[in-house]
Amino acid sequence: MTDYQSILNEIYRQVMLVKDRGTVASYIPELQKVNANHFGFHLKLKSGESYGVGDYDVPFSVQSISKVLSLALAASFKNNNILRRLDVEPSGHPFNQLALLEVEHGIPRNPFINSGAIVIADILVSKLDNPKADFLNYVRDITGDASIDYDPIVAQSEKTTGHRNMAAAHLLKTFGNLNNDVDEVLDFYFHQCALSMTCAQVSNAFFMFANRGKCLFKKSRLTEQKVKRINAIMLTCGFYDEAGEFAFEVGLPGKSGVGGGIVALLPDHFVVSVWSPGLNKRGNSKLGMQALEQFTTKTQLSIF
Predict the structure, then answer these.
(1) Secondary structure (3-state) at 272
(2) Mean pLDDT of 177-191
(3) Is 67 annotated as catalytic?
(4) Among 61, 64, 70, 285, which one carries the catalytic annotation?
(5) What is the pLDDT of residues 115-162, one digit of tens each?
(6) Which residues pair with 278 in a beta bridge?
(7) 189 catalytic per annotation
(8) Which residues bind substrate (predicted)?
(9) 33 among known catalytic residues
């Protein structure tokens, strides 16, 4: 039987010796205040056992990790027309790039770049009676954790500095790919990205993607076909223009956020979440990438 706790402890010892921890995100001023020395690692097995090390129970801003959860909620609705409004191809560009959106006539390359996530936000604004409250309740429901909440200070910081997201939303609107008011959609989007969760809570939220669409409480949230498709998008698009590198080094579907979090999973086996605020040049957690590469190497568990 694999001693997962010892593996996590060994990875923790090794990464804590690394001097270059990357650079904390600064384009959202509130994120710049986070201590770069944080490091948390959490593993949730499909069988129910959990293991953690470091700051795995300290809340952080999940940022783009939330895009998978908003996509899952949108995909759970019938007649959601997602695939008519965006593509599922890797962008090969940074997450906030606008030129590709112009060239491709307002159809975002995938749901995880910012423009694609804004389209998903527009779908949820149309589908939900109270979008911010309903999305938050969805995340609380799949985790069984009512303590999960938005960080209003981070949301305001994103709104104040989110000029490229505003530009993307207006560009989508000019191409007829945004149905609701731009300000309303962006207000939801900024709050969605400002979800505050711990590594343990992120692992619990993503449990359904490793469990054929069933959440922690064995309730079906997505069909197996939709889970397969979302996992595929995570593998090919979950790390923006570093998705190929993550697949090569780690070999798992996953999603990163500029808050320094990464979540990854092996279907029918586990979900693993890591948080280290310092980012590499591509906007992904520097130590998080290293830790997950070590994890799949030491356990010899990946999709390949």
Answers:
(1) strand
(2) 98
(3) yes
(4) 64
(5) 999 999 999 999 999 999 999 999 999 999 999 999 999 999 999 999
(6) 24
(7) yes
(8) 64, 114, 158, 165, 189, 240, 258
(9) no
